[in-house]
Structure formats: C-alpha cells, structure tokens
Amino acid sequence: DLDFGAADDCDSPLMCTPHSFPPSPEFRADVMARSAHFTDDVLYLARDHLRVAQQSRCEDSSVREVAKYLQQRQALAIFSVSDSAQGIVLSRGGHCAAKVGSGLCSSTRAMVPVLHNRFVYFQMSVLEASHQTGLASLGLGLATAEMPLNTLVGSWKNSFGICSSGQLLISSSWYNSSPCVPFGCGSTVGVLVYLDDSKVAEHWEGPMIQAYFVFTVDGKRITASLPGQTSTNEEVGRSAAQEPTLQVPRSMLSILVPRDEVLYPVLTLHSPHVEVLTRFCAEDVSSVDREQLGLPAGIPVYALDGSVVLGSEDVCRGASSERTPVPHSLHLRHPSPEPLREGSAGEDAVERAHTKTEEPESVASRSGVLPQEGPATNAACLPGFVASALVEGRNFPSALSNTSDAARVGNSDAGPIEAPSAD
Q1: How far is the C-alpha of 51 from the C-alpha of 414, rounded, in Å?
Q2: How far is CA 25 from each of CA 32, 108, 273, rounded to the nearest angstrom?
Q3: pLDDT band at residue 205 using 50, 70 and 90 as cut-offs
Q4: Which of 4, 362, 374, 420 lies most in the core, judged by the most C-beta atoms within 10 Å?
Q5: Distance in angstroms (rounded) separating the CA atoms of residues 299 and 279
Q6: pLDDT digit string (tens) for 272-322?
C-alpha cells in the first residue's frame, strides 16, 4: 500500500497527494509528458552535437573558430533551461518553448550570445496549435543578461523586440512599424543584427556601441522611424586600408548598447500553450534572401551558432554551397559561467555528454577576446534531459546505436527542424 502521509497531518478528509507532484494541472501534464518527450530531446541533442562537430572541421576558418569556441563552453544554440522563467517548458532538445505557468510574461534566453562584428540572422516560428482559441500574444528580440525573466523583451533598457501586435518595443518605448504586420500561429519572424565594435561612444553608463537590427515577418521587412535614425547607409568595420568596409542598410534600425555586455536572443510568452520553435542554425533557417534582409551582395550572414546562412556570393538560402570567410576578425564575448552546482549531474556527466575534440586553436592571439582555455560549464545551463540521461550511465552515441533514427540524426545535410515522426 502506498503511504501518502498520516491522516492527522492532512486537513482534508480526502487522500493527500505527494508534495513532489505539481498541484497545477498544466504542470502535471508537463510531468506526465516528459517521458514521451525524452526520445525527441535526445535525438535533437545528438543532431546538434553532430552539427557542431562538423562545423569544427569546416574549411571556413570563421565557422571553425565559433564551433570550437562552443565546444570549449560546452554550449549549444538552444534555449537555456537555467535562463527560463518559471512556467516555461522546453522541448525538442531546447529548440521549442511553451508557457504553462500563470505568470503574465515569461521569458527564456538563448544559451549562446550574438557575435560581434558579424551580421547574425535567426528565426523563430510560432507553431500551429489546434487547441489555441485566441490570438497568440508574444514578443521576441534581443536583450542583455540583466533583463529579468518575468519582463517583456524590449521593455527593459538595452533590449529591443517585436510584439505579435506588429509594434516594436525598444528600450521601454513603443514604435509603430511600417508595414504593421501582426503575427501569430503559423508565422515566422526573422531577426538580423550587427553589433559594431569599431565605433565606441562614451556614455555616463560606460562605453557604448551601436546595435543595428531589422525584423522580418513572413518575409516582409519591418521598418520604423526612430529618433536620430539616419537616412543614409553607414560604414562599419575596420580601416578601409586593411579590410573592406561594410555598408549597413538604411532599413536597419539602431540603438546604443553597452560594449562590455552581450546580447542574447530572448522569447517572451504571454499566451499559454503557444509553442515557438527556434531556428538558430543555418540548416534550420527557412527560405531567406538578401532582398528580404535589405543586404547588398558581398556581405555574408551567419546564424547564431556560427554557421553560414548566406555566403558572400549567395543571393538566397541554398543558392550556393560555397561559403566565403568574412575578412574582418571574429569577435565573441561571453560572461564567465558559474561553477558547477552541487547535486547536479556534475563534471563527469558534462564530460560524457560531449565527445572529445582536439584542443581549440588559439584565437586570443589574433582577436584578444576568446579565452585560450574554456572554463567549466554550469551544469544548470544544460537541458534537464542531458542530466537525466547521463545519471543512468547512458552515452548519447551508444544510446542511438540501436535507434532507427540514428542515421537520420547523423545526416549532416539535415533540413529544417521538424517534429520527429510518431512512428
């Protein structure tokens, strides 16, 4: 017989439930679905690690440096479970987020920050939901790590985002977009950002740099009129005598952000039970071309994980398999992670979750930014399914050896993220 506690300890005549079982119906449903989602999570995680391993051997030195940097940090281009508000549930290996809590605004941050001195592009897709009765209410954009997770992205300083109403929210100020394109279930929102370190402005809050950005909704570029916004293209990059200068399109908006801070992709959910799928890798990005982004030819575009979305000669995604390295130096910034917490999966679990790779080449000698040695990763930054799988002594490659989907996961030419087949 199950012992649910002494009768005199219960104020109700009904049988008591275990304190470890969530009382909320939404959280109970999440707990019951975890075992069903476990296989999907492992497959997505294995695919992501295979992608990073492949990028570490890429001929493009820029892509290779980013991949090895991610291996040093033991990070992936997914949502971070430790940087998600209470009530946010992550699935599909951290690529999909949904809100099950009762909070007004629940946000989740990506594990990987945006690169500096690069055009970085990523997408988020709002999945169709048959049970969704109203319009989806959410926002997405970029923010620093100091933004609270119960805050709408864009309402905090040094953050900017677009809301499902079609309006832009930039550093707590609302702006009407042109065209005003509301989005919801079935829509895909793209974000193009460029953090320019070549021009530093002194500010009372410290050194500031320009963050250029543009949003697209289902392929339509969104613009707005901001105070002080220039009407002509601006040059970014290093000295023209050493490297070719880049042109920031006039359609890109800009704000000042702290030079010493990093920006993370952020998703804020207001409506419950709305699933949003991230597209942080070039292989997952849906159709995109330069006309959508407003970029001239010759400017490469990178995904959040460092993979190339558009090469220098590419007109649209998939137009050419040849990727041209960016002429200027790679500039990554990342805060020092916290030490491993006691009671977590531990260092052994983290080491088993990642295959051994050769020592990353020294990039600090060229850029002065990347660390020569990767510090230990906070285990809380890894998705929960990693720890649960490794506690049982399972290694992901061996766990996939008897799985029919192993060949599909190992395919380096995998297409956009789709839900694994129920079969």
Answers
A1: 9
A2: 11, 22, 13
A3: confident
A4: 374
A5: 21
A6: 889 999 999 999 998 888 888 888 888 889 999 999 998 877 777 643 333
Residue 353: domain span? 32-227+243-410
pTM for this model (two decimals): 0.69
> Exposed e or buried b for every residue in 295-311, given b needs 16+ CB within 10 A?
beeebbbbbbbbbbbbb
Q: Which residues pair with 97 in a beta bridge?
A: 90, 276
Tell me which of 195-199, 287-291, 292-296, 336-340 is least confident: 336-340
Domain count, the chain: 1
Tell me which of 139 and 136 has the higher pLDDT: 139
Mean pLDDT of all residues in 62-84: 90
CATH number at residue 156: 2.60.120.920
Place of tokens 């320019």: 196
**Cα separations (Å) of 245 from 235, 236, 326, 379?**
6, 6, 11, 41
Is residue 317 assigned to a domain? yes
| pLDDT band per the 50, 70, 90 thresholds, residue 202 | confident
Inter-axis angle of helices 384-391 and 25-55, to 10 degrees?
Answer: 80
Distance CA(102)–CA(272), nearest Å, equals 8
Q: Tell me, yes or no, whether 282 lies in a domain.
A: yes
Going by C-alpha positions, the residue among 303, 299, 265, 268 that lies closest to residue 284 is 303
Tell me whether residue 18 is in a domain.
Answer: no
Query: To which residue do tokens 């290694």 refer?
Result: 395
Mean local confidence (pLDDT), 178-196: 91
Q: Can you give the pLDDT at residue 232? A: 41
- Amino acid at position 398, single letter: S
Inside any domain, residue 378: yes
Work out the angle at residue 57's Cα, subtended by the Cα atoms of residues 55 and 59, and round it to the nearest 5 degrees.
95
